[in-house]
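Bug #77: duplicate submission created two jobs. Keeping one. Sequence:
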Amino acid sequence: MDELSPIEKLVVQAMEELGATKEEKKKTADDIAKKCNRPKSMVTNALVALSNKGAVKRVVREKASGYYVSSAQA
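Kept job's structure:
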């Protein structure tokens, strides 16, 4: 897997602290941004990059997408 940037590491750490390690415990970008204390746009960009790297899974829902750390990363 590609090396993670500092913001990507921060996002993964925040997701793990929030317990977003399984699909049924997924969190929104808003939840993660609040935990990271970073702008939502920055967190969303990091989530897209992490998703492309396979470190995070994205679940499309009716309102906001949910994210969780993939088991390969956890």
